[in-house]
Amino acid sequence: xxxxxxxxxxxxxxxxxxxxxxxxxxxxxxxxxxxxxxxxxxxxxxxxxxxxxxxxxxxxxxxxxxxxxxxxxxxxxxxxxxxxxxxxxxxxxxxxxxxxxxxxxxxxxxxxxxxxxxxxxxxxxxxxxxxxxxxxxxxxxxxxxxxxxxxxxxxxxxxxxxxxxxxxxxxxxxxxxxxxxxxxxxxxxxxxxxxxxxxxxxxxxxxxxxxxxxxxxxxxxxxxxxxxxxxxxxxxxxxxxxxxxxxxxxxxxxxxxxxxxxxxxxxxxxxxxxxxxxxxxxxxxxxxxxxxxxxxxxxxxxxxxxxxxxxxxxxxxxxxxxxxxxxxxxxxxxxxxxxxxxxxxxxxxxxxxxxxxxxxxxxxxxxxxxxxxxxxxxxxxxxxxxxxxxxxxxxxxxxxxxxxxxxxxxx
Length: 411
Hints:
Layout: E1 3-12, H1 16-27, E2 34-37, H2 53-56, H3 69-74, E3 77-80, E4 85-89, E5 94-97, E6 102-110, E7 114-116, E8 129-130, H4 135-145, E9 150-154, H5 158-169, E10 173-177, H6 190-202, E11 206-208, E12 213-219, E13 221-227, E14 232-234, E15 237-240, E16 244-246, H7 249-253, E17 258-259, E18 261-263, E19 275-277, E20 282-285, E21 293-294, H8 299-313, E22 325-330, E23 333-339, E24 346-350, E25 358-364, E26 367-374, H9 377-388, H10 395-399
Parallel strand pairs: 1-2, 1-6, 2-3, 6-19, 8-15, 9-10, 9-15, 10-11, 18-20
Antiparallel strand pairs: 4-5, 5-6, 7-16, 12-13, 13-14, 17-18, 20-21, 22-23, 23-26, 24-25, 25-26
Helix pairs in contact: 1-8
C-alpha cells in the first residue's frame, strides 16, 4: 500500500464539477497543492455531447475535453487517473482507492457524480445492454450500432430522448419505452411532454408509454424486450436511460448525513469536517424548489457548486443560490429551461407550438418560476430575470410575443 503526500485540496471526480473546482481555485489565486482523482482513464471531458454530437461524429474526443492536457500541468493540478476512491477516514483525513493507494488531504471536494441505474437482467444477458454515462460507454454504443438495425431505448427522460433522436437520425429503428404515462414526466409539464412525444413519433420513433417491462429474451444478447401486456419488442441493442444513483457510498460509510445523495449546506459542506460535495450527488436546499432538499443533475449545478466550494476554501462566504438551467437537443429541437417547474399551478404559452418555436412559462400562485423555451433563445435569455425576481406578470402580457420578456421585468 502506498501513500501520496497530503494535498491541500483533494478533488474526487473528474467531471464538470471536479474540473471546475480545480480551475476556479487556481483562477482565484490558490497556491496550495491540488489533485483531481478520477476512476476513468481520460482527462476531464464534457458529458452532454456523449449522447449527441460525440455519438453522431460531429465532435471528436479531443473536442469534448474540458481543457487540453497541458492546461492541468501548467497550473500545477495533478490528475490521478484510473483510481476509484472506496473509503474516507475523516479523522485522519485520508482517502483510500481500490488499488490501495492512500491520499492525504486538508480539504476534500467530493464530485463523484453518479452511476447509471441498471436493469435487472438474466445472468446470461449483458453483451448488448448499454448505458451512456462515460466516453467508454459512448464508444461501445458507436461500435455496436454498426451492425444493429433495431434498438430499444428504455426511459424517456432527456438521456433516453436524446439517444432515441440521434439513433433515429443514424438510420436505426428505435422503440422508446417509458413506464410512466408521458415522456419527461419528472422534468417538465405535460404541454412540452406531449409536444416532444409528437416530434419523436413524426420522425418514426415507436413511443410506448405506460409500458412496464416484464423481462428480456435472449442468450448472451437481448433479442427482445417483453412488456407487461405480453407484447414483444425485437431488438439488436438495448440502451438504458433510467437515471443515476448518486455515488456517495464512501461518504455514507464515513458517517456523512445522506438521503437522496449526500446532504450539504449552502456552502456545499457535508456533515464531515473539511469535506465538501458538489454536483449530481449533492442534496441541497434549493430556493427555486420552494426550499426543498433536492439533487440537480446538470452542468450548471456542478459548475456553480464548484465555484461555491472553491470560494469558501478561499475564504469567501457567499452561499449557493444559482438559478437552475438545462438544455437538450433532439432532432431540430433546441430545448432550454430556466428555473424549476415543480409545483407549478398554471402555464402560459408564448408563440405557436405548431411553428416549432415557442416558450412555456410556468407559474405558481401567479409568480413566474420557470420557462421551457423551444427554439426560442431570446425568451430563454430574457426569461431568467423573471425567475430571479419572482415576477408577477399578467398572463396576457406573458403570452404576447410582440412584447419582449425583458420589457416585462420591473425596473
